[in-house]
Every structure is written in structure tokens, then in C-alpha cells.
Amino acid sequence: MQSAAFLLLTIGLCAVLVLWVAYGVTLRTARSRLPSDPAPRRGISVLKPLKGHEQGLADNLRAILEQTHPDFEVIFGTADAHDPALDVARQVAAEFPQRPTLVVVGSADSGMNPKVRLLEHLERFATHELILVSDSNVRPGPGYLCALENVQAAHGAALVHSVLAGSTGRTLGERLEDIQLSGWVAASVCFTSQVGDPVVIGKSMLMQRSALAAVGGFAGVRDILAEDYILGRRLRRAGYKVALCPEVLQVVNSGRGIAGFFNRHVRWGQMQRTIYPVAFFASLAAQPTPFLLAALALGRGHVAALAAIGLGGKWLSELGVARYVAGRLAFRTACLLPLKDALVLGVWCMALVKRTVHWRGNRMRVGPGSQLMPLRGELGTDLREVA
Questions:
Q1: Is residue 262 included in any domain, yes or no?
Q2: I need a surface site. Which of 189, 230, 242, 331 has the fewest CB within 10 A?
Q3: Packed helices 337-353 and 288-298: angle between N→C axes, nearest 10 degrees
């Protein structure tokens, strides 16, 4: 029993070291100094896909219209003409008559990914070479567009994505999402960006339209669940650069319960398993909590003591990184780290065996490369929804 505990302890402590490397990269990357301002500024078309009147939506939309960038337009849109988000978008747009805005309805005619179908429709109304996909639940600071363009110009990048963080959660599910996003997810984004295989998250993507068109555009990922990561990978393989903007982008995780947290991260796990199985299995080895807890339960003496120290080191370091990235994090949110780790283990196990995804009322099968396919008998499912 003691030898088994020692093996588990070794695996757990190695996982802690791996995390510390990723956290070190995160501390060096997030909130680091931005490149100096390029001149002149280029126009940006902001594509804002909407779905439902979520809490804080009006403030989120105001935040994009309050940008200091001198030349941008915002195109709001939904697939459903009766979506309540349309009224919110119109009301907010009316508060900024000096900003070029457009509110549209509709989506592309085909494709299994409802968000991509909507983005493909919104792009038709864009007038600038630079387009920004900006989800409805992000709340950027006033320098967000300038920061993205600075990074784009400095690196000559075809795609610039963002470090994400959450800190405003009130419910249990919202707080779990905040700490996972600001800790593990932010570390994954920063670390993979440094090693040359960036995890692009589609909540914030500034892209050159010419480069996007060269790799097939939005139409080329109509049937892909992980369209954001795949677009980044296609651009890199075509010789374009993908860069990470270190300015942290706040995500407002409103209305999310534990089930919502679990389902979202299972879906992300399914994407990783179908696209990059090696990374999916390696991610379990980078989760020290189950190994250290088992070593603590089975071990005695120094083994148990080291397991307890390892757990404390893991949680304290993740808390420190999450607070640094998010800027602030409530103490009661920090106390959820053990529960979050337990749920993440369940998420990994479910993502390993689950072959379907339930997404905004639509059930689909996820195949290799996160290819979306209709379930037998559900070919008539309405897919005109957006993530």
C-alpha cells in the first residue's frame, strides 16, 4: 500500500511541477506590456453574435461601443428574428449615435455549427479588412480594440486572440467558471501560445479577412465544433502568424449553474479528445489533485505529509495565478478550488466516453476533428442558434 501511495505521490508532484511551469508562463504573459501604438489606425469590423437576453448583456454591448479606437463598426446579429437580444442591441446602439452600428437577422443556409452560420452571415455586412469576433458575454476595457490591433501590427498576425478571465460570478456555477477560466484555461492559452500550438478561444478573435478567406473562411468550418482552434491551426499551417494579446479580457459568466459548468467543459474536452488525443490524455497527468488525494488517503508518514503539502502548493499557486489574471477574485470563489478539481476529473471522464453534444437545445454527434454530424432521427433539428 505504501509503495502504491509513493507512486501516486510521485505522479502528483510531477503534475504540480508541470503546472508551475505553465503558471510561470502565464504570469510572464498575462498583463505584460503591449507593443507601442502603430500609425495610422486601420478600420475594424466587430461581429457581435447574440443569443438571448442574458444578465449583463446591455453592459457588455456598451463596453464594445465605448472603445477608444478611432475607426470601427459594430455588427450585431441573431439567427432568430424574435430573439430578445435584438431589442437590447438596438437600445444600446441608439445610445451611441456617433458609432457606425448595424443590427441584422439571419444566418447562412447550411452547416451544423450555428455560431459559424451566424458569423458567416454577419461578415457579409463588414466593410473593413480587419474583423473581430467578439462574443456577447465579454466585457472589454476601453483600450481593447487598440490593444488587439497593436499586437496584430507588431507581429504581422493574421489572427490575434485573448487571455480570458472571469471574476464577477455570484452563483456557485458562475464562481466555478470564473476560477477555471482565470486559472487552468488562462494557463493553457498562455502556455500553448508560447510552445507554438496556440489554443484559440473564439470569444475574441481579430482576423485579417484576406487570410481567413485563403484558408476557407467561416464556410470552411461550418460543420466543426472547435471552429476557433481549427481556424488558428489552418492559418498557421498556411504560413500565417497567430498571436496572443496579453491584455486580459473579462468574461461575464452569468446564469451558469453547476450543470452548465460541467456541460461546457465536457464539450471542450470532447473537442480536445477528437482533435488532439495526446494532449487530452496528457491533460489528466497535469491534474495533480486526484493523485495527491489518493496518496494522502493510502500513504503514511512522509508520503502523506508530502501529499498534503503538494495539494496545498497546487491550490495556492492556482489561486495566485487566477487572482493575478482576473485582477480580483472573491475569497468564497477561491474556496471552491477543491470542488472545481473534483468536477474537472468528472469532466475528463465524461469527455472520454461521450460521443454526442447537447448545445443550445441541439443534439449532435461529434466525430474526428470535432466534426459535427446529425443524430439519426434528428435531421430536422433546428440549428439556427448561436453559442
A1: yes
A2: 331
A3: 110
- Per the CB < 8 A criterion, the answer to whether 180 and 318 are in contact is no
Dist CA 99 CA 93 (whole Å): 8
Closest CA to 121 of 88, 81, 78: 78
The answer to whether residue 383 sits within a structural domain is no
Total domains, the chain: 1
Q: How many residues does the chain have?
A: 387
Q: Rounded to whole angstroms, what are the CA distances from 278 to 273, 275, 296, 299?
A: 8, 9, 28, 30
The closest of 356, 366, 365, 113 to 221, measured between CA atoms, is: 113
- Output phi, psi for 163, to 5 deg: -80, 125
Hey, what amino acid is at 170? R
10 within domain boundaries: yes
Question: Domain for residue 220, yes or no?
Answer: yes
Range(s) of the domain holding residue 254 = 1-372
Q: Would you state the cell numbers that stand for residue 323, as one nine-digit string?
A: 487572482
Q: Which of 124-128, 222-226, 346-350, 362-366 has the lowest mean pLDDT?
A: 362-366
Predicted confidence (pLDDT) per residue in 121-131, tens digit: 999 999 999 99
Q: Which of 119, 144, 150 is nearest to 42 (CA)?
A: 150
How many alpha carbons lie under 13 Å from residue 73 in its C-beta half-sphere? Answer: 16
Residue 304 grid cell: 502523506
Pairwise CA distance, residues 184 & 212, whole Å: 29
For the chain, the average pLDDT equals: 91
Q: List the grid coordinates of 350.
A: 465524461
* Tens-place pLDDT, residues 292-338: 999 999 999 999 999 999 999 999 999 999 999 998 888 888 889 99
DSSP 8-state symbol, 36: P
Confidence of residue 8 (pLDDT cuts 50, 70, 90): very high
